[in-house]
């Protein structure tokens, strides 16, 4: 497994698709602060500070920017093996296909943690350049941990979509757009069972985010239901992993390659 992780990380470091996440997460605090500048003065927050900016960034990351980035990058890690015709080589290695996919998911999880740290740094930079008040060591530690935990939880929620659309050739772009829509649906669940158990809402709740302040929830969320929502996403991920198998095209190419080598040897 360690060899798989090192190989996947080396591939990812050389690829320009990382720019999707880097640019998206850099835009998030800029967009959130810019929104405060263009809204009508009567609904503008007169006490907007670093705490407010961090909260807006967590909301924006979980709802829009992280789902798009993680599904696109994670799906690409899987899709590239078929697109670049390297799956037939991987099938010759004594590693199960689910284990190979699991390695790609672990790399994506690690990337989500790095994205969380990167988002904290960009938020601090944006708030500093904007001249916001309220930054202290305690605020940075508390809000920074919340950003990273929310990024980690969001990645767990996105894993089924990464597996599904990553194994459909060229579909990871569509998968990232669908996941964006699913993240945006947080706005529609303001009470009842789905407020807490909907996986994207659960990702925020378990990070300690105040749902009542940002999506207009009419009741306090239930942490146990939030845990159940994340658990459901993990169970679905495991089921998809166990049921995953390489495409028939890759298998056929592998057989043809073996047959070709045999014919050359006889010749």
UniProtKB/TrEMBL annotation:
Keywords recorded for this protein, A-Z: Membrane, Transmembrane, Transmembrane helix
Regions that span the bilayer: 58-78, 105-132, 144-165, 177-200, 220-243
Recorded superkingdom: Bacteria
Keyword Transmembrane helix: yes
Record carries keyword Transport: no
Protein's UniProt name: ABC transporter permease
Organism: Candidatus Gallacutalibacter pullicola
């Amino acid at each position: 497994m360690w060899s798989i992780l090192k190989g996947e990380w080396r591939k990812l470091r050389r690829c320009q698709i990382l720019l999707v996440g880097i640019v998206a997460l850099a835009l998030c605090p800029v967009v959130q602060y810019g929104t405060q500048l263009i809204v009508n003065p009567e609904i503008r927050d007169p006490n907007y500070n670093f705490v407010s900016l961090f909260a807006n960034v967590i909301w924006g990351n979980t709802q829009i920017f992280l789902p798009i980035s993680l599904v696109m990058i994670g799906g690409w890690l899987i899709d590239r093996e078929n697109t670049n015709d390297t799956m037939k080589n991987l099938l010759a290695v004594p590693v199960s296909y689910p284990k190979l996919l699991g390695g790609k998911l672990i790399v994506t999880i690690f990337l989500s943690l790095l994205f969380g740290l990167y988002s904290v740094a960009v938020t601090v930079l944006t708030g500093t350049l904007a001249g916001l008040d309220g930054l202290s060591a305690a605020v940075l530690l508390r809000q920074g941990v919340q950003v990273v935990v929310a990024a980690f939880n969001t990645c767990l929620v996105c894993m089924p979509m990464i597996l599904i659309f990553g194994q459909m050739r060229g579909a990871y772009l569509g998968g990232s757009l669908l996941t964006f829509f699913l993240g945006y649906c947080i706005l529609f669940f303001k009470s009842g069972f789905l407020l807490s158990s909907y996986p994207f809402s659960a990702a925020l709740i378990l990070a300690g985010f105040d749902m009542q302040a940002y999506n207009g929830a009419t009741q306090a969320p239930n942490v146990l239901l939030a845990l159940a929502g994340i658990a459901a996403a993990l169970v679905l991920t495991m089921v998809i992993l166990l049921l995953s198998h390489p495409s028939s095209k890759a298998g056929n190419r592998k057989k043809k390659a073996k047959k070709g080598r045999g014919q050359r040897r006889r010749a």
